[in-house]
Predict the structure.
Amino acid sequence: MPKILILTGDAAETLEVFYPYHRLQEAGYEVHIGAPEKRKLQFVVHDFVDGFDTYTEKPGHTWPADIAFADVDPADYDAIVVPGGRAPEYIRNNEDAKRIVRYFFEKNEPVAATCHGPLLLAAAGVLPGRTSSAYPELAVDVETAGGVFENGGAVIDGNLVTARAWPDNGTWMGAFLKALDAAGVRAAA
């Protein structure tokens, strides 16, 4: 059974972790959660409130990580997913998280990222010349890292499928499932 690794940590957006986690399982993939440490993670819920300039944040669900980044052999996985929330702000400083991302870009294997997830891609140095969506306020981060920002819910650039945030989950994962199929990463029947 093909395996997919979700790279995340504390303060990840609950919907951006759980939707791909369960959707990919439903499609027949084995899905693991990778984090800085193998322990229970605390996710958050971001919502949009009229009159606020940005999103609000509340505690969300907890979920155990299956594997620490340092213990990940990227060759054991067929694709990666990088959810948003605030987790990418600190996992982008983790050398093993960047190592894992670089592996998938070097091998041209499927990568999905949403919301603040492209911060990890930028830190790993894989965005130059690539088109990426992200939370719109991160356009400057994508462009500073040498990428081209596109404000879309399922932006595809080769092996990379990106989106803005959890309201794009359906179109984002739909495009990623097609990218997995096109790459020959087919789930169990």
Remarks:
- The CA atoms of residues 125 and 145 lie 7 Å apart.
- The chain is about 30% helix and 25% strand.
